[in-house]
Amino acid sequence: MKKTISLLVSLLLLLSSLFGLVPAAQADGDHIEITGYSVSGVLGVSNVYAIRLNLKSTAPVPGDDGPAYKLSSLEVVATGSGFKPVVSSGSGYTITLEPVKASNSTISSLNSSSSNHAASYTVYFLKSGSTDDLNLGFRYEYSRTIIPDEGDPFEDKHSGTTGGQSIAVIKTAPDPIVPEWPNDPPVDTTRYKPLIGVDNEADMPVLNDETKVLTIPVRNSASYSASKINIELEPADKTKPVFTANRMSVSTYISSLTSNGKKDAKFNVQLAPSATAGIHPVILNYTYQNSYGDNFTNTETAYIRVETANTSPRLFASAREDATLTPGSEAKVSFTIENSGNNPARNVKVSLLGLSPSGVSVMRDVDIRYLERIEGMGEQTVDFNLYAAPTLSDSVTMLQVKLDYADFGGVSYSETNTIFLPLTTGGGEGGVPRLIISRYSMQPEEIKAGSIFLLNLYLRNTSQSKAITNLKVTILSDDGIFLPVDASNTIFIDRIEPSATVTARLPLATKADAENKPYSLRITFDYESNQGQSYSSQEVISIAVRQNPRLVVGEPMFYGEPIAYQMLPVTVEFYNLGKTILYNLMVRAEGPFQVEGGSYFVGNFNPGMSDSFNVAITPTEPGALSGAVVFAFEDSVGTAHEVRREFSLNVMEPFVPEDPGFKPPPPPKKTNWWLYGGLGAAALAALGGGIFFFRRRRKLKLQMQDSENFVAATSIVVPEIEYVGFDDAPKPTDPGAKQ
C-alpha cells in the first residue's frame, strides 16, 4: 500500500512541474548581466573589434527543496545592423549567421561559487555601419536533475533571454602593436651552383653514316640539383662541320638532374658529307637553374668519334698524253681534272699560272675555267687555246694549274700542280727529237719514310718523224732521300719510236729520317737520233714523303693486387719516338671493369714527347680478365691510326672473414625457486665451512713452520753456543746433531 502511494505522489509532482502547477524558478529578472567590458582592435584586420565582456550569472531560485539550477548553455545575440558577429577563419575572420556560443570554461566559471559566478568572455564583431552602439543580448538555459523517490530521474530546465544592453564600441584598449622584426641578411643563393658537363667516365660518342641521333652523356658533378637544362651543340670549327641538322640550332632539353645524376643528351643530327674519320671537337653550351631559380651558363669542349669511309675531295690536274705545243703555233691543249677523294668537289675553279708572252700564253681565250661539280673518284676535262712563242728552244715548257674548290660542307681547298708540256718542231727530217716525261706515278701512291716504292716514268718522244735510240735515263736525288734498290740509278732503253711513249720503272727506297715534305728528283736523258747525233736534256719531278708515326707504349704498371670489387690504379707511359706530330691523340681504357678516369685527350703530341695515362679500374668478377689501353690519333694527312696495349689480370676473390655463426641461447627453463634457495643455502654453508677449515689449517701450518724454524736454528748453533740462563737446553730433532 505504501509503495503505491509513493508512486502516485512522484507522478503528481512530475505532471505539476510540466504543466506549471509547481513554479520551477523565479520567472522574472535577467539572469545574465554585463558588469563591464573593454574594446580593442584586432592585429592586421580593420573594422574588427575584440569585445571582452565581464559577465555575472544569477541562477533561478527553485520553488522547492530540490537541487539548484546550473547554467548549461549561453549564446550572445547582437541586434541591429551596425555590427556583425565574426569567427576566426585561417588568417582572417568570417561573418557568421549563427549565435556566438560561450565556451565551456566560461560556463563553468559562471556556475562556480569560487569565482563568484563571474567570468570574462571575448566576442568579435565587424563594424558594418556608421553607429558605434552595439546592442547585446543573451539566450541562456539553466537546468537541474530531479531524482524522485519513485520513478526515473528527469531534467528540469529553465531557459530565457535577456534584454538588449547597449555597448559603445569605442576602443578602450589600444590596438596590438605589430612587431617590427629586423630584416634577415640576404642569402646569396648563387653559390649553390650545379655543375653540368660531359660524363668523362662514359664511352666516347660515335657519329657514323647511320647516325640519326647523337647521344652525349652528361653529368651533374656538384652537390646541388639542376633544372630546366638546355644544351646546345655546335661544331668547334664552323668551316669544317662534322654534322648537319635540319634546324638553325641544335639543342636538347633535360628537365632536371640531381646531384651526381647522369642523363643522355640527344641531338637530332647526321654525319656531314665532308666529315672525315677521326676524333673531332664539338662545343656544348649549357644553360640551367638551381633550386632557387638562379640562372647559370657554361661552355665546354667535348670530343666525338667519327667513323666513316668518306675522304675529303682532292683534285689534281694532268695534261693529256697527246698534249703538245709547237713554237710559233697555236694549239688546243686538254687538261684532265681528277678527284681522288670519295666526296664530290663543287665550285671548282681551274686557273693557268706561269703564262707569259715570251713563253706560253692563251690565244683568243681566258685563263680560267669553272666546273660546277666533280664526283668522288671522278674526272672532267677542260680545254685551253695556248700559243707557244717562237723563241722557245727547249724540249719542254712548264705551266702551273691552280685548282680552287669546296666540299658540300663548305670547306674550301686549293691545289697547284706543275705540268710539263712537250715542244715539237712541227715535223720534217731536220727536226730535233725531244724526250719528255709526260707523266709519272708511284706504287704505292703515298710514300712513307723508310719504305720502298716503284717509280714509273712515262717517257714520250715528241718528234713525229725521228726515233730516239740508245736512251740512258739517270735518276738523281740531290739530298740523298731516295736511293735505288738492288739496281743502279740508270735505266737503258734501246729505242722510242716517233710520238711513242714508253715506261721506265725503278724501285727506290726512302730514308727513314725523311721529314714530312716534298723532295725533288732530277731526271737526265742522254740519247741519240737516227743519224747518230747525241742529245741531252733534264727534268725535275717532285715526290712527297710522309713520315711514319711512331708511338711507343710501355707496359701497364699495376699498383696493388687485383682483387674483385676493389679499385686498382694503373699507369701506362707512352712516347712519340717518330719525327711527326700525332694529331688528336686520345687514350682510353677498355675491359670488363668499372673505370674511373677512363679517357684522356692528349691533343697534338709532338715528336720526342712523353706522357702517361693514369686510370683506376675495379674488376667486377674474379678470375682471368683481359683489358686494353687504346691510343687513337691521326697522322699529318688525316689518316686515323689506333694502337692497342693489351693486358691481363688474374683477379682474386675478395677476402671475407668467416662467420662463426650465431647460436641462439636455449629458451629459459621454468625457475624452481625452492631448488635455487636450497642450493644457495648449501653453497653458503659450504663456503663458510671451507673458509673456517682453511683458516684453521693455515694457522696450524704457520705454528708448525715456526716450531721447525726454531728447532732448525738451534740445531745449527748448538755446536758453537753455550747456553746460559736456560734450565733445559732445547733438544734437537736431528739425532745426528752433537751437543
Number of helices: 3
Strand proportion, as a percent range, falls in: over 45%
Would you identify the regions where 5 or more consecutive residues have pLDDT less than 50? 12-28, 710-739
Biggest beta-sheet profile: 5 strands, antiparallel
Please state the overall shape, judged from the principal axes of the Cα atoms.
elongated
Mean pLDDT: 80
Strand order, sheet with most strands: 1-2-7-4-5
Integer-rounded radius of gyration = 59 Å
Structural class: mainly beta
What's the short version?
This protein has three helices and 46 strands. It is mainly beta and 739 residues long. The longest helix is centred in the last third of the chain and has 45 residues.
Question: Can you offer a commentary on this structure?
Answer:
The protein has 739 residues and is mainly beta. The chain contains three helices and 46 strands. The strands form eleven sheets. The chain has a five-stranded antiparallel beta sheet with strand order 1-2-7-4-5. Strands 3, 6, 8, 9 and 10 form a five-stranded antiparallel beta sheet that branches. Strands 12-20-19-14-16 form a five-stranded mixed beta sheet, with no helix packed on it. A hairpin with a 5-residue loop joins strand 45 and strand 46 (640-651). Residues 12-28 and 710-739 have low confidence and may be disordered.
